[in-house]
Amino acid sequence: MSTRPTALPPAGAPDVLYLIDLSGYVFRAYHAISPLSSPSGEPTHATYGTVAMLSKLVEERKPAYLGVAMDAGGKTFRGELDARYKAHRPPPPPDLTVQMARCKEIVEAYRIPIFIEQGLEADDLLAVAVARAKEKGLRVVIASSDKDLMQLVDDERVVLWDAMRDKVYGAAEVKEKFGVPPEQVRDLLALVGDSSDNVPGVPSIGLKTAAELLGQFGTLEAIYARIDEVKKPRTREALKTNQADALLSQKLVTLDGSASVDLDLEKLQYGGGADVDRLRELFTALGFTRFLKAVRAPTPEAREATSRVILSREELAAFVAEAREAGRLALEVHASSRDPMTASLVGVALACQPGQGVYVPLGHRYLGVPAQVSLNDLKEVLGPALADPALPKVGHDVKFCEVALQRQGFSFAGVTFDTLLASYLLDPEGNNALPVLSERDTGIKVPPFEAVAPKRKGQPTRGLDEVEVSDAAKYAAAFPAAALAVSDKLRPRLRSERLEKLLDDLELPLAGVLAQMEVAGVLVDPGALTGLGEQMAKELAVIETRAREIVGHELNLASPKQLETVLFDELKLKSQRKTKTGRSTDADVLEALAEEHPLPGVVLEHRLIAKLKGTYVDALPKLVHPETGRIHTRWSQAVAATGRISSQDPNLQNIPIRTALGRSIRRAFVAPPGSVFLSADYSQIELRVLAHLSRDPVLVEAFRTGQDIHTRTAMEIFDVDAASVTEEMRRQSKTINFGVIYGMGESALAKRLGIPRAEAARFIDAYFQRYRGVHEFMERTMAEARRSESVHTLLGRRRLLPDLRSSDRMRRAYAERIAQNTPIQGTAADLLKLAMVKLARPVVPGARMVLTVHDELAFEVPSGVVEEASVKVREAMESVYALDVPLVVDIGHGASWAEAH
DNA sequence: TGTGGTTT
DNA sequence: AAACCACA
């Protein structure tokens, strides 16, 4: 026997037929996998196992020919032969029948041919298919582990593949398993019988005896012809007595490949042309998010988008007419920088047919540049179309276009699709760049910028505005051309994956709100900052001098490398922790060292001031817009994996608040004369979300009765009454509540609280003892997440987590923390986004939303109407969604952001 | 690129 | 946990 195990033919081999014993597979998965159900409660475990096999087969084996055999149900010729055959079997349980039907639907959606034949079992059909395939010279892989089918194995040309265990049975493996070659399996099974099918066989003859007999005689017929040569008397007698049953069993187990069945092998050629929409719909309904990613229409033919340059008002007018005729308009604004508030327009690219773009250069400047459309002509000709809400607009990052155009005095309405936002909803951590989406989903290539503007030796890289317009058009016009084509692919995907509402009712309207916020900006009082900056510079100088005196030489306190040498080599302080490159000098380490030496404390003070000065005090004045005098942060809604909004230039979401110095920076964010700064915070939104999602009775009650949640947690885990909760107990409880939200493990909690791991473990344990509902919710979430390889929020936003099945423990543990955190953080983000959309229109005339920080919205409000605005903002935010617990908003106002808190 | 630090 | 940013 060969020592090398039989292997499957190579993936994609053109002469291989894959056959699936579907009924057998579903039946096996039904018993092998523990029960699961879909979000709607439908049983799914057998379906899940079957889909896992199917998708693995289709994705990895890339079958050239593929077919599925199923039992027809009802009477078979075997039942006619022997009334006992499979007669003892109870009717299949209803949850198996449901899943069998589902599996059939899924196979149909894969567009895999199914053969069913009255009177025959799936095994018989497989035998026929194998026989026909052999005639044609095809190799065959049967996806099954049914021992009856092993008689069909033919060396390495016909093999059985147990996809669940990934084991392949060729002749060698069959011999190993049964002790006989495949051609004797039939007679072996006839002798041994099969209790699960009620095939009688010969009593007292087992696998070993049967194999020995067949080794000696070759066939069942030969055994009976030479029955007297059977040595063991007991075996001989058993054979004689049960000759009828043995022959009957042989008929029952024989798979006859010569049956006349209508089966055309040519129809089994598999092109991979699955009904992807139907598959996605089924997988979504069943909660099989894990398989969604693999469902992809066959890669379309690669092609370039067409492009045309528009240089005159007339040509532009003709295009606008075309777009109106086509009923939609895709656009991409090409600007001189990523910041739409300061960028100048280089050109506008448009499309109204997928794959066909035009480019309107506006600000190209190079020697010999042709006359370009003027901004005024653009406004007059394209402006009305952009402003027309009845003309649907499509783009990739439409907010950028909107802000850049608004800045030039255009109005903008009627956005119906954004490929960036759509792609983000489908996979927030995927690559959402338009060229990537376009090539993958539509085959349209967006050329890289370098392709139209090759780098020239010794010359600086050019901007788009320095590229010859017809070259630029090949690049620029491809964007809207691709966006339109991509939108046609993504819209049905969003629909079948139940993300369409999230786009239409949340993200798209939110993009408009964020655009308004970017245009509005926020006012910073530069005077307040310069004074602060001078003061900080002086303090830093003093600290640096002190540090020099301590160590006796020059040193740069901002350099972790220098600091490392001084602290651990010169001063011989004990290294606490290592980083990848050396010994850590982070705040925790310095705090620990501060007791032993004066230098670490000095460094900490320096770091605090230098950080605030560099990041805010010095940076903010540079970001003041020269024309508006305000700071126009860019808001991103398609960056954070959890669904949160993020902000850049500056990041308004990490402006200091805890230290006095930090608060003085917030004091520089002010409302203009005649207005006040109004700030509204959701109180404990994440824990409220957790209460709602988990329905934990203690948590829900605490919020319904308006208790201090950290005190309540302290009462629970320390088992004391409210009056006995000390400051320290409350502080620890607060950290634990945080830990729960972030999926913090023991070690992270221990570090935070500065306690031993074992103690942290006890806290966590006590927490889950008292908040049983939370514990159960976490377990449920994790089980769901493992199955679907994804987690989702209250509004159905999702995050894919393939790493939950990673073989790397670190990655898996990381994914598990994310699985705990994301439903909570993401749902809080959903609610805030909802509130923002709800507050899209000013609550009172003259009010405008200027910033958001995860659980906070801030507005500029005319001074006279603050009270009215406060009432309206609170009402809107608190009623944004009816949770099981009340939503509470803390609201305040004042001259600056600091005072509004 | 790595380290460190700010927010929620 | 997950953003963004400064600095060496």
TrEMBL record:
Its Gene Ontology biological processes? Answer: DNA-templated DNA replication; double-strand break repair
Keywords from the named record: DNA damage, DNA repair, DNA replication, DNA-binding, DNA-directed DNA polymerase, Exonuclease, Hydrolase, Nuclease, Nucleotidyltransferase, Transferase
Stored Pfam families: 5_3_exonuc, 5_3_exonuc_N, DNA_pol_A, DNA_polI_exo1
Catalytic activity, EC:
2.7.7.7
Q: Which residues form the signal peptide?
A: none
Kindly list the residue ranges recorded as spanning the membrane.
none
Give the InterPro entries listed for this entry. Answer: 3'-5'_exonuclease_dom, 5-3_exonucl_a-hlix_arch_N, 5-3_exonuclease, 5-3_exonuclease_C_sf, DNA-dir_DNA_pol_A_CS, DNA-dir_DNA_pol_A_palm_dom, DNA/RNA_pol_sf, DNA_polI_exonuclease
Recorded catalytic reaction(s): these are: DNA(n) + a 2'-deoxyribonucleoside 5'-triphosphate = DNA(n+1) + diphosphate
Ranges for domain 5'-3' exonuclease: 13-271
Q: Provide the family line.
A: Belongs to the DNA polymerase type-A family.
Q: What is the designated name of this protein?
A: DNA polymerase I
What's the source species for this entry? Chondromyces crocatus
Q: Organism classification, top ranks? A: Bacteria, Pseudomonadati, Myxococcota, Polyangia, Polyangiales
Tell me the name of the encoding gene.
polA
